[in-house]
Specification:
five-stranded mixed beta barrel; alpha+beta; 494 residues
């Protein structure tokens, strides 16, 4: 009791009252935190959705009391469980004088268990006529009246539990996130893909441009890194004869944060032997159409005020896209110097030694991406920025790679995977050398284990990776990645 009393003295008036109530409950032998099991047998959402089946039936529900209106010998209260909220009708004569007196001392936010029969009030509201009610857990902090507005977003993300309590639409977003993952898994499983897990802690920093998080393994006395992709391990499984694999993987990149980026995020990478990047395009188009229909009920969805048709994807090569939106044709550039001159004319900065391929990518970034509102595949990327993709046999300056864009945002990346170990080794070594030239402290290494795996022979393979979080944003009409991550990375308040 002394601990409780000391806590009461330090709290403001509202909090003191709640702690006094708790202290009284504990003193009377009714500590609400000692409750263990409550055998509820119904959900509010089911009762409301299937009222004809529940009318007159006695049920037991459990949830958080969100409102209460006391009217003498009878009261109304609102209780929310994980499915929905429902009204309670509580009468002193039905639950007993002692229980009713205890009920009137409950606070908004308390967790309660209720037994009663389902009925509809004179105003037509589906309700539960309580016959028993008990306190299952005490809420010591008052709930906010509202969680809204730009100023409150930071608090919403930091205290997601309160956000979920107060905003049913937020709970619905995360319910849909779970459904999206189930549908993706079901689709890939139906296509014969096998879900696998690969290491999150990896022994080397690979040469890719993404910056990793670094840690240290005490027993092995070696630095290790949180993975920035799942690609190389998955392709080693293709070598091993697991010809259709995918991973729902948490990825970590020690980089900036904005409405589209969080340091940890979820991707799905999948690899299929004996197909190419065109096979991956077909898979993406089929999957996104299915998801739109399953999650949104239509292939045409609304995202941030724009109508997006997920039932149709345009297909453009990068050369075609730059010609369309930047008004210049790659095939008219005589050499690298001519390409750099075009970049200067278009007011696009490029390195002094930029190649035609580098200039093409820079012009794409400057002129094209912002125009790709409807779903669009951009394919055939220059070899300069595609170290893991197979070259086009008839045009070796380009690779069999595509990215797809929706609402001017890149959503996924795919290749006809490079399976020539000699070419792969050379590209990796050039990539690592370029990283170290730009940053002498860089610890990137060539993944020679992966090169060795390729030397055993990898069949022709199509590979695809896409971000789950951006997809959830799209299908739930969420403006920020923080709206679809339960606990996004936040700067400490201090």
């Amino acid at each position: 009791m002394a601990d409780y009393n000391n806590a009461v003295e330090d709290m403001n008036e509202i909090l003191k009252v709640r702690r006094e109530k708790l202290a009284n409950l504990v003193e009377s032998g009714k500590n609400p935190y000692e409750k263990t099991v409550y055998d509820f047998d119904a959900y509010a959402g089911d009762i409301k959705a299937k009222f004809e089946e529940y009318e007159g039936k006695t049920v037991k529900i459990a949830g958080r009391m969100m409102s209460r209106r006391v009217m003498g010998k009878a009261s109304f209260a609102g209780v929310a469980d994980s499915s929905d909220s429902i009204q309670l009708y509580v009468r002193r004569d039905d639950i007993g004088e002692e229980s009713y007196a205890a009920f009137k001392k409950y606070d908004i936010g308390d967790i309660v268990g209720v037994k009663g029969f389902c009925f509809r009030t004179q105003t037509g509201e589906i309700s539960i006529h309580a016959e028993e009610i008990e306190l299952l857990s005490k809420s010591l902090l008052p709930l906010p009246e509202k969680f809204h507005g730009l100023r409150d977003n930071d608090l919403r993300y930091r205290q997601r539990e309160v956000d979920l309590i107060m905003n049913p639409d937020v709970r619905e977003t995360f319910r849909k996130r779970s459904q999206i993952l189930r549908e993706i898994r079901a689709y890939l499983d139906s296509k014969g893909f096998l879900e696998v897990d690969t290491p999150i802690l990896v022994p080397i920093e690979i040469g890719a441009s993404a910056r990793p998080f670094k840690t240290h393994h005490n027993t092995l006395d070696m630095d290790m890194f949180l993975r920035i992709e799942t690609e190389l391990y998955l392709k080693r499984l293709i070598v091993g004869g697991m010809h259709r694999v995918y991973e729902v993987g948490r990825i970590f990149r020690n980089e900036g944060m904005d409405t589209k980026h969080n340091p940890e995020f979820t991707t799905i990478e999948l690899y299929q032997a004996f197909t190419d990047y065109h096979g991956m395009m077909d898979l993406v188009e089929e999957l996104y159409k299915l998801l739109a229909e399953k999650i949104c009920g239509n292939t045409v969805i609304e995202y941030q005020g724009k109508q997006i048709d997920l039932g149709h994807f345009e297909r453009l090569t990068m050369v075609e896209a730059v010609k369309k939106y930047a008004g210049t044709d790659y095939y008219d550039w005589a050499d690298d110097a001519a390409a750099r001159a075009v970049a200067k004319e278009k007011h696009v900065e490029v390195p002094a030694d930029a190649t035609k391929g580098t200039v093409l990518v820079e012009l794409f970034d400057a002129y094209v991406e912002e125009n790709l509102i409807q779903p669009t595949f951009i394919y055939d990327y220059p070899v300069e920025n595609s170290p893991l993709a197979k070259r086009k046999p008839d045009e070796p300056a380009f690779t069999e790679r595509f990215e797809y864009f929706i609402n001017a945002t890149e959503f996924g990346n795919a290749f006809s995977e490079l399976n020539d170990p000699i070419d792969q080794r050379e590209r990796f070594e050039r990539q690592v050398a370029a990283r170290k030239a730009a940053d002498p402290d860089c610890t990137a290494q060539v993944d020679y284990d992966f090169v060795t795996a390729l030397e055993y022979g990898m069949p022709p393979t199509g590979g695809l990776g896409f971000g789950v979080d951006r997809l959830v944003m799209l299908l739930t009409d969420s403006a920020s990645i923080r709206d679809v991550l339960l606990f996004p990375t936040m700067k400490p308040l201090d």
